[in-house]
Amino acid sequence: MRHRTVQDVMTHQVVTAHRDTPFKAVAALLARNDVSAVPVVDTQQRPIGIISEADLLRKESAQPDPEGRATGVWMRPRDRKRAEAETAEGLMTTTVFAARPEWSLVEAARMMDRHHIKRLPVIDAAGVLAGIVSRGDLIRVFLRPDGAIRQEIVHEVLEQTLLIAPADVQVEVRDGVVTLRGTLERQTLVPVAVRLCRGVDGVVAVHDQLRYTFDDRRIDLGPDRVHGVVHPPHHH
User: Fold this and answer.
1) Which domain does 111 fall in, by range?
2) What is the pLDDT of residues 79-133, one digit of tens each?
3) What does the alpha-carbon distance between residue 134 and residue 229 come to, in Å, rounded to a whole number?
4) What sign for the dihedral angle of Cα 28, 34, 37, 40?
5) 205/95 same-domain check
6) What does pTM read for this prediction?
7) pLDDT score recorded for residue 84
8) 3-class state of residue 168 by DSSP
9) Is 131 exposed, middle or buried (0-12, 13-18, 19+ CB in 10 A)?
């Protein structure tokens, strides 16, 4: 089975800013390209920061209201400094969490969730920007057609990986939810089959209705076997 990687779903042509990109030019980049954030890169195209719509709105929130009252007095000094910035270098968030092209979608999703971020620049082995991946890119895998999911489960999981004949297990996929019915030869195959099906791209859940012929968890090893080790006979 081949799982989709970050490289498969990321945006390859990335809109970027540089340290000296003016505030208005950054705003124009976001609006013109219909994106909510842009990485800031150095002269070697390595990410050094990221600017989101929230960073631009900070300047707006720091402006006096129509009656002339200052509304930004509550800001932390660091935020006020960024609100007063005129270029990308002052606006950007300098802590950049990045993904690698070969990462699984699960790895990318976990990093986004752990750090409460919506997107990840993708860098190659040299640290150069190779793309950008968003939450939406990761969610799109769940739009995979049910027929494609079922075909992968039948041919790659059951037939090729577990050597189970298609006639032994009936696979139904509806809205990404997989139902497995049938009888397997050994009990220990059941959790393995379920786990592998859960790992197929686009699977939302797996409903296990499998039975088994033989419970191979309860094998009597005999008095000469302890924890699967055969002890040699005693010689007198």
Assistant:
1) 6-141
2) 666 677 889 999 999 999 999 999 999 899 999 999 999 999 999 999 999 999 9
3) 51
4) negative
5) no
6) 0.70
7) 75
8) helix
9) buried
